[in-house]
């Protein structure tokens, strides 16, 4: 991974810089050459118009302009420019000293036509009179709208090309230095980018091998820094989940071991014929039935929790009357209620709107909360089931008069296998999963759970569920 990402970033950085230098350099050469060409053309036109005004009187009166043109040409050659004069027929009257052999030659008809119309003519490239590329400007000489001749100026392109060539050499040298600097900077930047990625990759590998305590250093607040923070958050959660998994496995093992040990012990006693009479034998069998039922409840609760974890619990949402669900849950717990002669009071307003959710699952919530309240309520005590409208939801509360829950345990009471009093809770037949299942169901309905308890005064469990008008 290190070589792959590092070299890719470095190669990309160098490729971008090199492409930028080539493109910018090429465009710069084109723009400079275009600018120099256009500037030279404008210069030739201005110079041509000035010369036309000087030569115009000579052509008008038939005077030979040769002498003055030779003088002016000698001056203009310092600037790399020379000019000729043609008459109204396009014949060359006077050429520069180096091109006297061209005198008498004829201007091409296309140029002559433009000049006759009083228009200037600009062209670049090879000329019929020169062996090299030139810029040529032809300026008409007009005498009261009559074409009497023209001034033609020539300047070689070689000077401009040489300037552009020098600039190209300078640019190549500058680009070479810039490329070296870019490679160095690209190396540093690539290392800077890949270093945290390599650290995260290494940490991920260690986590994959079970080291959930590994973390990476956050050295920046950019995307890489946020990636490192996200990785650390993930590692922290994985560490929490690993602790939960280990605790869950340990708790399940412990919860299963207890009834299995009891069942095994009493079965061995029965096989060995230890019961002295039928009454003792019946007592053994009753204990075996109790432990088997306890084991069955534990397995069922474990399967239920597993389904919630896998998000494979289907919920059938529909409207239902809350009081009817409460009464059905109480009916399944009638033997326990009658055994302790507990008084159940239901306080659900008659005009309360229908609830909306999975009726069977909400009944399971009531069953678990009521079973828990009955388990810890003293005999002849009262359990209150109350409901009220809270904003856009129904708040349901189940209050008992049991011993209460110590404050330090309240924040953990919804955790799986958590018991405030381990021995006492297990002795009463609880699996330690009932409240965890309640919370899972309520959360699936978009509600919240709550608990309020005072030592010696009882405990109130509450939950919220949607009402029909919200759907």
Structure explained in plain terms:
It contains 12 helices and 12 strands. With 471 residues, the protein is α+β, with helices and mostly antiparallel strands. Residues 423-427 have low confidence and may be disordered.
Task: Please give the structural blueprint.
Elements: H1 2-60, H2 66-76, E1 82-87, E2 92-94, H3 109-116, E3 121-126, E4 133-143, E5 146-156, H4 158-208, H5 223-271, H6 278-309, E6 317-320, H7 322-332, H8 334-340, E7 343-347, E8 355-358, H9 359-376, E9 382-390, E10 393-399, H10 407-410, H11 422-427, H12 434-444, E11 449-454, E12 458-466
Parallel strand pairs: 7-9
Antiparallel strand pairs: 1-2, 1-5, 3-4, 4-5, 6-8, 9-10, 10-12, 11-12
Helix pairs in contact: 1-4, 4-5, 5-6, 6-12, 7-9, 9-12
Spatially, the strands of the biggest sheet line up as 2-1-5-4-3
Please indicate the percent range of residues in DSSP E strands (runs of 2 or more). 15-25%
Largest sheet: 5 strands, antiparallel
Cα-atom radius of gyration: 51 Å
Distance between the ends: 51 Å
- Tell how many strands the DSSP assignment holds: 12
Q: Which parts are unreliable, with pLDDT below 50 for 5 consecutive residues or more? A: 423-427
Shape by Cα distribution: rod-shaped
